[in-house]
Amino acid sequence: MRKLMRILFCPALLFISSSVFSQNTTISGVVIGDDDNEPMRNVTVTVKGTKTATKTNEVGYYAITAQKGQILQFTYVDFARQEIVVGGSDAKVNIKLARVQKQLGEVIVTAYGIKKDNRSVGHAAQNVTGEAIAETQRDNFANALQGKVAGLTVNTTSGAPGSSAQIVLRGFNSIGGDNSALIILDGVPLNNNVFSQSRLGSDGPNRSNDYTNRAADINPEDIESITILKGPEGAALYGVEAGNGAIIITTKKAKAQKLKISYDNNFRWEQITRFHDVQKVYDNGFNGSPVNTTRSFFGPKYADGTKFYDNARNFFNVGKSYKHNLTLEGGFNNTGIRANFSYYNQEGVIPNSGNEKINARFTVTTKPSKKIEISTTAAFYNQYNRKAFRGTGGYYLSLLSWPLDDDARKWQNISGNRRIISKTAGVDNNAELNNPYFEVTRNKNFDVTNRITFNTNLTYKANDWLNVDLRLAADAYSQRGAYIYDRESFNFFSVGGRIEEYRSNFQSYNSNLLVTAKKTFGKFNFKLLVGQSFDDRTTTTFATFGDSVYDAARNLIPKEVQINGYTSTLKRLNSRTQGRDTLTLQRSIGVFSELTIAYKDFLYFTATGRNDWLAEFPKDKRSYFYPSINTSFVFSELIRKNNILTLGRLRASYAKTGKRSFPYANQSVYTNAISSTNGYGNAYGFGANNPDLFPEQQSTVELGTELKFLKNRVKLDVAVYRTEINNSIAANARPSYATGFILYTSNIADLYNEGIEATLGIDWIKNKKIGWNTSFNFNTMRNKVTRLPLPEFYNSDSWLVGFRASLYRGQPTTTIGGQNYLRNDKGDILIDPSNGYPLSDPNYVKIGDRNPDFSMGITNSFNYKGLKLSFTLDWKQGGDVLNGTEQQLVINGLSKRTLDRETPRIIPGVLQDGLQNSATPTRNTITINPYFQNDYYQFRTYAVDFVEKDVNWLRLRDVTLSYNFGKKVLNTLRIFSSASFFVTGTDLFIITNYSGPDPASNGTTPASGGVGAFAIDLGGTATPIGINTGLRISFKNGKDK
Amino acid sequence: MKKTIIFLIAVVAITSSCKKYLDDAYKNPNLPTYAKPELVLQSCISGMHRGIAFDARYLGYYSQNFSQIPNAGTLNGGFFNAERHGYNAGSDVSGDIWRMHYWNMGYNIIDMIDSSRITGKYDYIAAAFTLNAWSWVTLADVHGEMPVRQAFEKGRLSFEYDNQNVAYEYALKYCDSALVNWEKAASMPSSTLAEGDLYFFKGNQNRWLRFVNGIKARIYHRYSKKGSYVAKEADSVIKYTNLAMASTNDDAMIEFNIAFPDATAQNFFGPRRNNLAQFRVSQFQMNMLTGSATTPGLVYGNVTNDPRVRYMFRPSPNGTYNGITSGQFADNASTPVASDRRVPSLWGVLSQTSGPALGLDSGARTFFRNDSKFPIMTYSEMQFMRAEAYFLKGDVTNARAAYINGINGHFDMLNTHFVGYLNAVGTASPIAMVKVPIPATERAAYLADPSFVPPASSLTLKHIMCQKYLALWGWGFVENWVDMRRYSYDEINIYPSFTRLNIVNLFVDNGGKLAERVRPRYNSEYLWNIEALALVGGFNPDYHTKKVWFSLP
User: Fold this and answer.
1) Which of A50, A333, A525, B101 is deepest in the core (most CB within 10 A)?
2) Contact B140, B134 (CB under 8 A)
3) Half-sphere exposure (CA, 13 Å, Cβ side) for B251?
4) What pLDDT score does A868 carry?
5) Are B468 and B530 in contact (CB under 8 A)?
C-alpha cells in the first residue's frame, strides 16, 4: 500500500522538487467536505499561476511547497473553489470545501459518458443532480424529472404502484415506433422496455394492464447525476438510437477511502382525493322507469331520504410504503468500493395493489496503475408488482357506476360468490361489470421481475494524449407474470374464467471501445475520438392462456388463488389453451468518431459521424451513416471582463440521426389459414411487412445561447430547435386493400417538431447562512405531420371507444381523432329524420390537439443553516384532454351533464332527408325528451363533446423540508457524522380547469409506440397525494479526527 | 509484408464474422417467411369459397335466390338492406370478395408465382394465374370500377379506379399466362399439384385447363351488350365454352375436409357454420320449379313440378313447395303464414331463428350440408352461356342443343356431386325422403315437354336465361346477378315472376332503382382510398344503382 502511495505521490514530488526556491514553505493539511465532513480524496491543490499542483490522498491529506504570498487553490468537481494565501512558514492548514449545486458551465457528461467542458458543447444539455431526484422520493426516477428539465415531458400511465412512465424529450418523433428517450447508465444503454401485451398468447392491446418501464428498476439513491441530452444533436454519436435524445445517468461511486456507512429511510402515506363527480338525483332504470337491476341511471328520482354510500371514497385505501436504504462505501489502496442495498414496499391506494422492490448495487473502482482505471458495477433488482386492471373493464368505471344507494363493499352474496345487482328472476346477469371489490380481490394480476446488470469500464491512459476506454455491459432480466380472471368474472364468465401466464427473458450485451487522442497545435486544441460498439439484445417470451379454470375433477379452483401457487394452475386449464413463443433478436454494430477543435478558449467546433449496421434490415440496406456538427462561441471571452456578464456564448448545431424499425418488419410472414376447405394452408397475415423499410431519419437544427450574469447569480439558457422527421414508419397502418394487405407497414410520414426551451436560474440570496434560489424551466413546442399519404393513421391500442390517437396530414402529431357530428355542406348538424337524434360522421376526424401551449417548471430552494425547503411547481398551459370517463358516465346516466334530462329539446340542425344540401333543407322540429328517451345519451354522445379544450394545470409536484443536524447535535450523539430529517409532500395540490379529477392520464402504455394515448382519460384514477418522511444518517467511523 | 497479410486476413475475418453475426439476427425465427406453393394454393382455393359464400348472403338477395325471414319482426340489419337492394353504410358486409381478391389472393398469388418460377413448378405458376384471372373477373363482375392498374404496386397507398373492362382485359392476359404455363406443366408436371389442389381438381391438369377456358368464356360473355358482340365476342364464347368443361365430371368444385377439427374448415353454408338460419328460398326461384296459378307471367305453364324440386328443396308441412316473396318480409312475427305452409330453412328446419341441433345436416340438401361441394364453375353454366351466344347470333339450332346440354348438365351435377335425397312425391312430412338420384324417367319426361324444351323455332332467351338461373341457383350468385343486370332485371321477357320491388320496399337511397353493383369494401376504400373513390362517384348515395360497364351498350 505504501508503495502504491509513493507511486501516486511521485508526480507531485517531482513538481515540488522542480520548483524549489528560497523562502519555500510547505503547507499541508486535510481537506474535508462540508456535506458530510469526510476527508476528500483527489482534491487538486494548485499554486495559482504556476504548474505546481498536487492531489489529496485517500485520507484527504495534502502537502505542497510554495512561496510566501502565493495563493493555493483547492478545486474539486461540485465543490466551490477555495483559495488561501501562503504565509511565511510551514503550516498545517485544514480546508473545508463547500459543496455547490451542480452548475451549468462546469463539466458535463455527454454521449458515451464523455466528460466535456460545458462551454465547448454546441447543443442543449441540462443537468439534474442525484440529490434533486432522490429528494422527491419517487420510486420511479422518471417521475422525479417532471418540471425539472425544459423540454422533458413525463407521461405517466397511472398513479398505481409500479406503473410505467415514458420520458419524452422535445415531443414525439416517431408515429409508430418508440418515442422514449434513450437511457444510458454509466456509459452503456439501459433497457427501458415496457412489456408489450402483443407478446401474450391473447395478443391484447396495451391498455387494460400496465407493466413497469424497466428503467424504474434503478434505485434513485444510486444516481449521482443525470444529464439530459434533449435533442438528437446531443446524442448523435448513438446514431440510430439517438432520435429521442438521451438521459445519461452517472451512478454514485465510492468517494471516501475510509469506511462510511449511511442509512436512510422513507415512510410514505398516500391517498386519492379526487374523483369523477356523479349525479345523486336519478336512480337506476331506463327511460324514466325504475329498473333496479341495471347499472344505467335513467330511472326516476331517488326517493327523499335515500341513504347514499360514498362508494368511491370507501373503496380506496390509504396507501403506505416504506423504504430502507443502506450504503457502505470505503476503500483501500487505490480501490473504492460502494455497496448499496435497498428495500421498498408499497401497499397501493387500490386495495390489494402493491409493489415490492429489492435493489442491490455493488461498485468497485480501482486504479491499479497510473495508466489504468477500472470501474465495475454489478446490480441486482427484484420487483414484485400486484396490479389492478384499468380502462373500460377495470375497477374504476365499475366503482363509479355502482348504485349510490347500495353499499359496494358488500361484494359477496350469501354463498360467497360475486354479488350482482342486475339479477332478474333468479338469473344472474353476468354481463354486469364486476363489483370493484370483487374485481380487485378475486381477479389477480401480477408480475415478478429479477434483473442483473453488470458493467465494467476500463480506462487506459497510454500517455498524456492518448486514452483508451473499453466498456462491457450485460443486462439480463426475467419477468414472469400472470393474470387470472375468476370464473365468476364477467369478462370470461361464459368460458369459466381465464388464466394467462407469461415468462419473458431479456438479455443484452453491449460493448464499446473508445479511443481518444488530444493534441494542441498553437492556439488550436484537437481532440479526436474513434469508437466502435456492439449491441446485442435478445428477448424471448413464452405465454400461454386458457379458459375453464377448473381442476381435473371439474372443481372450481379455490376461491383464493394463491399467488405462489400460480404455476400449478396451468394444469387446471382443460380447454381453449393457446400459447405463443416469441424470440426477438436485435443486433447492431456501429463505428463512430468525433472531432473537436477548440480555438483558444472561446471557439469550439465538433463534428461527429457514425455508421450503423443494423441486423433488422436485409444485407444490402443495412448500413446507415449519421453525421452531426456543432459549434460553441464564447463571445464573453472577447469582451472585457465585467461583473454583469460573466459568461456569454452562442451555440449552433445540426445533426442527422435515425430510428430503428421493428425487428423482422422487413419480412412478410405466413400464417396458418384455417378457413374453409381442408383446414390447412399458409397465407399472409393481415399485416404486410415491408422489405423496403429503412430507418426513420431525423435532422435537427438547434441554435442556443447561454448567458450568466452578476457573477453567475443569474443564469439563462435558451435553445431554439427544429427537428424534421422523414419517412417515419407507420406500423400496421390501414390503407386500401389494393396494397395487397389489410394492414401495411411502411416509411410514409414526414413531420416536424420545433420549439423553444429556456432555463433561468437565479440565486436570490447566496451566503454562508442563507440561500435562496429559483430555477425556471420553460418549454413550448409545435408539431405537425407534413406528409401522410393516407386519410388517417392511428395507433390501434389507443382506439378506446369513439376516439383514438390519430394523425392527419397538415395536423399536429398530438391530434385526437374521433367521432364528430355529421354535418351538411353549410355546417349544420344532420338529424336522423326517424327520431330527431344527431347523426355521426362515419369517419374519425380531428377533434382535439393535446399539445400544450407551453409548460413551465419552477423550482425554489431555500436554505437557512441546516434547514432546507425546496419545491417544484409544474405549470402546463393549454392542450386538450379527452375525458372519456365522463363519456362513460353520460352513457350510464351518471354524469351531471344528464341532470337536465327532463328538459325536452330539439337538436338544432337539419334533417338528413335528401334535402340537407339543398337551398331549403328541412329544419329539425322533432322534440326529444331524454328522460323518456335515454338512448339519446347512450347512442348519440360523440367523443367530440368530451374533448376539454385548453386544459391548464398548476401542480405542486413535490415539496421537501429537510433539516441537517448541526455539529453540536452530532457531537452530542457521537455516533453520526451527519444526520438529516426530511418531510416531502408529493402532488399535494393541483389547480386545473379540467372537469375530471386529473388531466394527466394515459389510455395506453408506452409499449404501444407512436404518440400513444396520453391526455386521454378513460377509467384512470387520479394521482394520489403523498406525504413522505424519513431520516438520512451516516455513521461515524471511530478513527475520525 | 507478413504483418500486412495477417492484418488483412484479420480484417476479412472480422468483417465476415460481423456479417454472419448480423445475418443470424435478420431472419424471423417466429413465423415462416416462406411458404411452399403447395400450402399457399390451398389457402387461395379456400379463399374462393369464402369470398363467394360470405357475399352470397347479400348477392343472393339482389338476384332473388333468397328471401329473408325477419328475426322476431325486426326489419333491420344487413340482410334486410340487401333484400331491399340497398347497402350497409359504414360496414364491411358484402365486401368479402373485395377482401378475397386483394388480400386472400393478392400477394399470395404474386409470391406463389415467383417462388414457383424458381423451383420450376409450372403447374403452380399456371394454377396461380388461373385463380388470379378468376378472381379479377369475379371482383369486376360484382363491383364494376375498381383499382386495377395501380393495384399491388409496391409503396403505393392511393389507387385510382379503372373501368370494369380493364379488369377483364387483365384477367384475359392472366388466362393466357395460365394457358402457356399449363402447356409447359403438361410436359413438366411438378408431381405435387395434387397436394395443393386436393380439395379442388385433385392434381388433374386437364380440368384446370378447362377451367381456364371457362374463365375466358365468361370474360367474352361480358361483352354481350356491345355492338361488336355478335360479330366477334360471341364466337369467342362459343369457342371457349367448347374448350371448357366437357361434362359434369369437369365441374370446378371446391370440397371440404369434414375431418378437420375446426369447423371453420367446413362449408360456410352448412348448419354447423350456422350462417343461414333466416334464409329461405325465394318465391321467384320456387316458381321456376313449380309454377303457380296465382302468379302472372309464369315461366312454364306446366302445373307439374320440375323433377328437381323434390331434390333441391324441402316441402312445407302440407307437402307443397313454397318460397318467400322477395321484399315482403313475410312470415314474420306480425304477419305469419299459415303454419302448414311455412317454408323450411335451407337446412330443413322450420325455426325462424336457429339451425338444427348440434349443426346436424341430415335435413339439408345440395349446397347446404356441412360437407357439400361448392361449385365455382360448371359444365351446365358453360352450355347455357353457349346457348345464349348462339341465340344472339341467330343460330337457334345450336342454341337449342346447348340449351339441352345445359339442362342435362344440371341434372347430372345434382346426381353426381350431391348426395341424392329425394322427397317422396306428395308426402306431407318434410322428413321422409329417400336417397336416390332423380329418376331418369322423370328427367326424360321433363325434357320431352315442349314447354320446357321447345323446338328451335320457339326457343326464347327467356328459356335459356331461366334455365341457367335455375342451374346456377345456390352457388352461381355472381354469374346469375351478372345475367340479371345485363338484362336489366327484365321481369317481362327474360325473368318472368321476378319480383320487382316497388319504391316502398326498395332501399331509401335507391331512387326507385335496383342494385347494379356492390359498393367497394368500406374499410378498404371508404376510409382509406377516399379521393380515388370519390372520382367515380363512390360517395353518391345511389352509387350502388349505377350501371356497370357490361350492362351498358
Assistant:
1) B101
2) no
3) 29
4) 93
5) no
DSSP states of A558-606: PSS--GGGGGGGGGGEEEEEEEEEEEEEEEEEEEEEEEEEEETTTEEEE
Query: Chain A partners of B146 at a C-beta cutoff of 8 Å?
Result: 738
CA distance A875 to A1034: 36
The confidence score (pLDDT) of residue A569 equals 42
Per the CB < 8 A criterion, the answer to whether A536 and A605 are in contact is no
Using DSSP bridges, classify how beta strands A830-831 and A854-864 pair: parallel, antiparallel or unpaired.
Answer: unpaired
Q: Which of A134-143, A909-918, B18-27, B134-143 is the most confident on average? A: B134-143
The DSSP line for A270-308 is EE--------SSB-SEETTEE-TT-S-B-S-BPPTTPPP
Contact B22 A684 (CB under 8 A): no
Choose from A675, A684, A790, A845 for mutation: most chain B CBs within 10 A.
A675
Q: Are A737 and B102 in contact (CB under 8 A)?
A: yes
What pairing do the DSSP bridges indicate for beta strands A687-688 and A743-766? parallel
Q: Say how far residue B471 (Cα) sits from the centre of its chain.
A: 13
Q: Give the gap in angstroms from C-alpha B34 to the nearest C-alpha of chain A.
A: 7
Residue B74 pLDDT: 52
What's the predicted TM-score (pTM) here? 0.85
Grid cell digits, residue B254:
371446391
How confident is the model at residue A940, as a pLDDT?
85
How many residues in chain B? 553
Comparing C-alpha atoms, which of B179, B127, B132, B134 is closest to residue B151?
B132
DSSP bridge partners of A110: none
Say how many C-beta atoms besides its own lie within 10 A of residue B50's C-beta.
Answer: 22
Task: Name the DSSP letter for residue A418.
Answer: B
Q: What residues pair up with A778 in beta bridges, in sequence order?
A: A758, A856
- d(CA B235, CA B216) in angstroms, rounded, equals 12
CB contact at 8 A, A265 and A909: no
DSSP states of A191-218 as a string? Answer: ------GGGSTT---TTS-----GGGGS
Mean pLDDT of residues grouped by 10 in chain A (1041 residues)? 43 40 76 78 86 85 87 83 83 82 63 85 88 87 89 86 90 90 91 88 83 90 92 84 91 80 94 91 91 86 92 93 93 88 94 94 91 94 92 87 90 82 59 87 91 94 92 94 84 79 93 93 93 94 78 43 41 59 92 93 92 92 93 90 88 92 87 67 84 91 94 93 94 92 92 95 90 95 94 88 92 95 93 90 92 95 91 95 94 93 94 88 93 90 94 94 86 82 94 92 86 88 92 74 38
Cell of A157: 400511465
Cα–Cα distance for residue pair B444/B452, rounded to 1 Å:
11
Instruction: Write out the H or E segment, with its range, that includes residue A319.
Output: strand A319-332
Cell digits of residue B509: 337511397
Closest approach of chain B CAs to the CA of A680, in angstroms? 7
Q: Where are the alpha helices (DSSP H) in A805-923?
A: 884-891
Search chain A and give the residue with CA nearest B151.
A738
- Whether this model's ipTM surpasses 0.90 comes out as yes
CA distance B87 to chain A (A): 15
Distance CA A677, CA B372 (A): 10
Helix (H) or strand (E) holding A849: strand A845-849
pLDDT tens per residue across span B62-97:
999 998 876 544 555 678 889 999 998 888 999 999
Determine whether A31 is exposed, middle or buried from the number of CB atoms within 10 Å of its CB (0-12, 13-18, 19+).
buried
Angle at Cα A51 formed by Cα A48 and Cα A57, nearest 5°?
85
Give the pLDDT of residue A574: 46
| Closest by CA position to A614, among listed A654, A660, A648, A678 | A660
- Phi, psi (deg, nearest 5) at residue A736: -65, 145
Residues of chain B found within 8 Å of residue A668, distances taken between Cβ atoms: 33, 107
Place of cell 488483412: B8
